[in-house]
Amino acid sequence: MSVDKIALIVGASGIVGSNLAQELLSTNWTVYGLARRPPQHLAGLHPVAADLLDPASLDAALAAVNPTHVFITTWMRQDTEVENIRVNSALVRNILTALSPKKTVQHVALVTGLKHYLGPFEAYAKGGTLPPTPFREELPRLEIENFYYAQEDEVYAAAARDGYTWSIHRPHTIIGKAVGNLMNMGTTLAVYGSICKETGRPFQWPGSEAQWNGLSDVTDARVIAKQLAWAATTEAAHNEAFNIVNGDYFRWSWLWPRLAAWFGVEARGFDGTVHPLEEQMAEDAAVWQKLASRHQLTVPDLSQLASAWHTDLDLGRPLEVMTDMSKSRKLGFHVYQPTEESFIDLFAQLRQDHIIP
């Protein structure tokens, strides 16, 4: 990779952003990582601290940054979809407006997700007619307000104004390491499994019958990082939207006992009732704090690791959800990752880094 590739990763402290930074640095990009609290530990990453909702903050932070490629991998959760649209379209618009006078940007990549097909959180997979699975990129937008659509429209408008290419990336649930992330099923299940081991509780399936028995897929953070890098530098992939998942399908009824076995706990499957993790883990903050103290773990605050609300949304859906990868496969993106290994690799890394016991 030529060293004239200069990346600005917006959301560099998140699951996708941090994995993307490692991927690009390993192939000799110059990489700037923007966040309110950008990572300081990643060798070679140039941290950029800024508030995406403050244009003056962005202008100051980016004064000496002249990226060729911009990767937008973050969002800010709000109480309603109206607020999600207002805030999350603004953060995209603000970053692209701040960069506009530089005239250095060649490509902008935006990470959204399968809510493009399922609808926003407050109407998640409910009501109306949802498209058939596997989801394909050519499906039309749902007739419902969705902040993903608003973010896409900001990218399209800025690309038309400034003359660069774009790509949109739609992962399913992302499995990878990040602390303090809003949507983090892998780490949530790692913490839950550790608490079950500590307390002698069973590893109880928290979700729906449809998810337990139906086909599913997920996205390894390392895989989406590779797709982002590929799309940014592959002409045939420019001005296209892409699904991105590991490439295998699985049933949670098959995977759940395997995850339980890694923690050495009893697996319990769907028993006719949904058992949300938010309820199961509601009183576990003190348990985790004691566990963290005894094992000298690096993050004693349960809320910084577990995002039970998001895992409950994913695993509680009343339908099976899976994704078609034909579009990028035909264009030459052939990365594949077995999903069981995605979880096990993450669990092992969290243990090695003293995040779980």
Automatic annotation (TrEMBL):
PRISE-like Rossmann-fold domain ranges (all copies): 68-301
A matching Pfam family: PRISE
Top-level taxon: Bacteria
Protein name as annotated: SDR family oxidoreductase
Origin species: Hymenobacter tibetensis
Taxonomic lineage: Bacteria, Pseudomonadati, Bacteroidota, Cytophagia, Cytophagales
